[in-house]
UniProtKB/TrEMBL annotation:
Protein name according to UniProt: ATP-dependent dethiobiotin synthetase BioD
Substrates-to-products reaction catalysed: (7R,8S)-7,8-diammoniononanoate + CO2 + ATP = (4R,5S)-dethiobiotin + ADP + phosphate + 3 H(+)
InterPro entries noted in UniProt: DTB_synth_BioD, P-loop_NTPase
Positions of the catalytic residues: 40
Encoding gene (name): bioD
Similarity field: Belongs to the dethiobiotin synthetase family.
Source species: Natrinema pallidum
Length: 235
């Protein structure tokens, strides 16, 4: 395994912004001089979805991200493999991740959906995070309902003895009372630091997301206190 513990960017559900936050963290650390590399254990919905490619584009190099396994159905990996008639073994996923972690001075593992998403066999995403001995960064939504989803995710991680770096409230605009009060309430409920990332305007004329602009926006939004908690030496 790598001399440094991997960072695992996990979400409270699908579509909360794990890939954009992963891209932002990877770009930030690489700009600070660290050889950070994002690892997507398995990509479903491919094509067109390709989170590793998004991170690589955000960082301007293919060396910034990798994914060892792609599946076409846009479903949980275990279910996607079953529907596609392909074999998918947990030990193969774990071994591939460990190999990439060993090769990356600063490895960042991006989760798949939420923590309880079926990965392979009877194992879930949270099992992989625990087996890789990663430190978790939790990405969550900003609006109504996020208190429950985030607190339950924290409980699940703690039950698996997974260290938590902090919580990223994504697309935080502060337009509602729920949004404005959620960050402080999450800190009170979980006792972990919370940082916010605003909605980012990183779209190209054709409507596609522009990875470098989005990643830079995340990097700039992360608080210094949050950055200091990242398990990266010599910062």
């Amino acid at each position: 395994m790598s001399a440094r513990r991997p960072i695992a960017v996990v979400g409270t559900g699908t579509g909360v912004g794990k890939t954009v936050v992963t891209a932002g963290l990877t770009r930030l650390l690489r700009e600070e001089g660290h050889d950070a590399r994002a690892i997507k254990p398995a990509q479903t919905g491919h094509p067109p979805d390709d989170d590793a490619a998004f991170v690589a584009a955000a960082c301007g190099t293919s060396e910034a991200a990798t994914c060892p396994r792609y599946l076409e159905p846009a479903l949980a990996p275990r279910v996607a493999a079953e529907v596609a008639g392909e074999d998918l073994f947990y030990e193969s996923i774990r071994t591939a991740c460990e190999r990439e972690i060993e090769a990356a001075p600063v490895p960042i593992v991006e989760g798949i959906g939420g923590l309880r998403v079926p990965l392979a066999g009877d194992r879930e995403v949270i099992d992989l995070v625990a087996d890789l001995e990663a430190t978790a960064v939790i990405v969550t939504r900003s609006g109504l309902g996020t208190l429950n989803h985030t607190a339950l995710s924290v409980d699940a991680l703690e039950a698996h003895d997974i260290d938590i770096c902090g919580i990223v409230v994504n697309e935080y605009a502060g337009e509602t009372t729920a949004e404005r009060t959620n960050p402080d309430e999450l800190e009170r409920m979980t006792d972990y630091p919370v940082t916010t990332v605003p909605p980012l305007d990183g779209t190209e004329p054709d409507g596609d997301r522009e990875p470098p602009a989005l990643a830079a926006g995340v990097s700039e939004a992360l608080s210094s206190a949050f950055r200091d908690r990242l398990p990266v030496e010599d910062r």
